[in-house]
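User: I'm preparing a small set of examples for a lab meeting where we compare how different chains pack in three dimensions. I only have the primary sequence for this one, and I'd like the structure in C-alpha cell form so I can line it up with the others. Please keep the answer compact; I'll paste it straight into my notes.
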Amino acid sequence: MTGRTGPTPPDPADPPHDSDAPRPTGWAAGWAAVRPWLVRTGIAAAVVVAYFLLPLDQLGPQRPVLSWALFAVLLTAVAVALLRQIRHVLLNRPDTRPGVVISLLIVLSVHVFSAGYYALAKQPGEFNGLHTKIDALYFTVVTLATVGYGDITPRGQAARVVAILQITYSFVFLTAAATALTTRMRDMVVRRPERGRSR
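Assistant: Understood. Below is the C-alpha cell output for the 199-residue chain.
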C-alpha cells in the first residue's frame, strides 16, 4: 500500500477497448476507411503482374520436381493462412482484417492453380485448348465457378488430378474462408446499430 489515491493507470497487458480508443474524424476517418481497400487492390494487382511476368515456361516437364514442389508449398502456405484467418473470425479477434487477407489469399490461390495448369500444359497430351497464361487463368476461374464450357479440357492424368485438387481445395478452404468472411461482415453490420444506440 503506497497510500496514493486517484485513478489507477491502465495495465499494459489489458487490450484497449473499443470505447477507450479515439475514433478518427474527418479526413483521417475517410483515409482509414479507404486504406484497406487500396492495400488490397495493390497487392492483388501485384499478384496478377507477377503471374504474367514470372518465367513459368521454365517449369513443367523441364523441371518436374521443382514444379510440383513449388505448387505444393504455395498451396499449403495459402491453406494454412486461410485456416488462420478462419480461426481469427471464429475467435472474434477485433485486431484482424479478414476481409482484406482472405480476399487476397483467394486471389493468390487462383493464380497458383493457373500457374500449375500453365506449367502442365507444356507437357504434350495434358490439356486440350490451353496455350497461354490467359487460357490457364480463364480455365482456373471457370473451374472455380463450376461453369465448365468445355473449350479447355484436361486430357492427361496429371491435369485431371490438379483439376480435382482445385475443386476439392475450393470446397474445403475457399468455401470455409468465404463463410467466415460473411459471418464477420454480418456481425459488423449487426454491431454497428447496437453501438449507435449505446451512445
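A couple of notes for your slides: The beta strands are 127-128, 153-154. The radius of gyration is 23 Å.

User: Perfect, thanks.
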